[in-house]
Design brief:
With about 600 residues, the protein is α/β, with parallel strands linked by helices. It has three domains: about 170 residues, Galactose-binding domain-like (Jelly Rolls, Sandwich); about 100 residues, Immunoglobulins (Immunoglobulin-like, Sandwich); about 325 residues, Glycosidases (TIM Barrel), CATH 3.20.20. About 20% of the residues lie in helices and about 30% in strands. Helix 5 packs parallel to helix 6 and helix 8 packs parallel to helix 9. The chain is globular and about 75 Å long. It starts with 10 loop residues before the first strand and ends with a helix. GO terms for molecular function: beta-glucuronidase activity; carbohydrate binding. It is an enzyme of class 3 (hydrolase). Belongs to the glycosyl hydrolase 2 family. Keywords: Glycosidase, Hydrolase. One of its GO terms (biological process) is carbohydrate metabolic process.
Amino acid sequence: MLKPQANPTRELVSLDGIWNFAVASSPNIETEQAWTKSISAKLQVPVPASYNDIFVDKAIRDHVGWVYYQRKVTIPRGWSASERYFLRLDAATHHGRVYINDHFLVEHIGGYTPFEAEITHLLAPGEQFRLTIAVSNELSWDTIPPGRIEELPNGKRKQHYQHDFFNYSGLARSVYLYSVPNVFINDITISTDLLAGGVGVVDFQIDTNQPVENERIKISLTDEDGNVVAKSTGQNNRIEIDSAHLWQPGAAYLYQFNAEILSDGDAKILDSYELSVGVRSVKVQGNQFLINNKPFYFTGFGKHEDTPIRGKGFDPAYMIHDFHLMDWMGANSFRTSHYPYAEEVLDYADRHGIVVINETAAVGLNLGIVAGVFGFKAPPTFSPESINERTQASHAQGIRELIARDKNHASVVLWTIANEPASSEQGAREYMEPLVTLTRELDPTRPVCFTNMGHATVEKDLISDLFDVLCLNRYYGWYSQSGDLDAAEQALEKDLLGWQEKYGKPIIMTEYGADTQSGLHAVCDVPWSEEYQSRFLEMFHRVFDRVDCVTGEHVWTFADFHCTSTMFRVDGNKKGIFTRDRRPKSAAQVLRRRWREQNRAAQ
């Protein structure tokens, strides 16, 4: 799915700003049909932002069910009646329904990927309309991520879920109105590779909304100086670039791929679309992860889209600041844990040479984790009553939408299709294998992984042979061997050597970390102290350096983040190297010294 853009043939209108807001009075919104009338401006909310922390109101923050966003919108008077108009939502978490005046337009389930619908047949240039978007935060066994709702004796509804971050909801990303010509480019798929002698390859496929003769589709590729380096025609072809400038980690180079549809006869440009293209190759060879045929070692973080007040709302200021903090530390990569991030994040990573492991929203497919925390016997994860065929169908759709949106980003080098599923339980292979096959069919150019949790040991895990890279989440010294880093070091090394011996694949430690209260200091190994977090990380690094297959380290996590407060989580998850407002803890210097030294050695 192409991101809307403004250019000589297309127009784009942002609908971000202040919207009227209301909480639904019933779980069944059909009973009140709030979209048929004007919603009061008594409550207003910014878009993009999660709504939960905007108001000083616990009932809104913890609401389970539907809310409404509404504003007036005008189709620009200058838009031609011969054009086509679309409404685009970059995300609605987790279920969105859109209404134009009294008319139901479209709905979408899945809180982190975009959806859109045509409105040409409903509105004319210069016409104003009432736009209402209903958003539900409800999770069930049929959704990704999964959850269940409990009806409490006092009449309230409580959302239960298995993921360890707050269930922020609302319109956390942008909303747009855009126009395209009557004949337009519907999608572009780009893949790149390297041939001998420094020749770069750009394979492309152009999809149009109606059949167009090949000779009417013109392609040009320009370099960063604006020089045309190649031309082509047709919907499906290959461009070869002699002495190509490669997209490199830490040294991005982006060509501009411009596709045009010409009219039949006078060669007038009917539609055009420009796409940034980084020429690079990605592959797994033995126990190495190769970018441009050179071994690459991942350093960086698992992150969250999480900031005070905005929740998961996209914020370009926070985004750029976070990237600069990662650069200051010497990090070269991050994982979009545990859902697809805003596409602007990937655009920025493309432009600045940051490597991305891109993840679906399939977190919480493991009933044993919560059961273990609270000390009760876990029910089976994969069953008709829990993670089932309907969950799998939603999961597959999430994979389709992730790849459809992000397939052209040079920064994305690895797909993660699930975080910590119950990979040692019966039913895991039957659930996951079709999803791995689907991912490879949709994108044969990138490796595929999932993140394995510690309970699914190398002896018990049932699915790791299906994947290209081993991604391990491990917390020796925190959830086990807490306070005993010597015992933790022995257990970690034994674990990693077991995976290395059995599979010989690249191992990325996608999570390792310890909760740390900023300002708490101790001489000895006292969990929650800044010194313990530092020594914890140093212990893991010693082990990484002794295991040949380790090809990456992503600390959990970049910054403290909000989650449901429990006896285990007081005011959020505190495993961040930075506090939630981005102040460094002592461990930041540990990582900065290590990663910057690694960068110098690699040069």
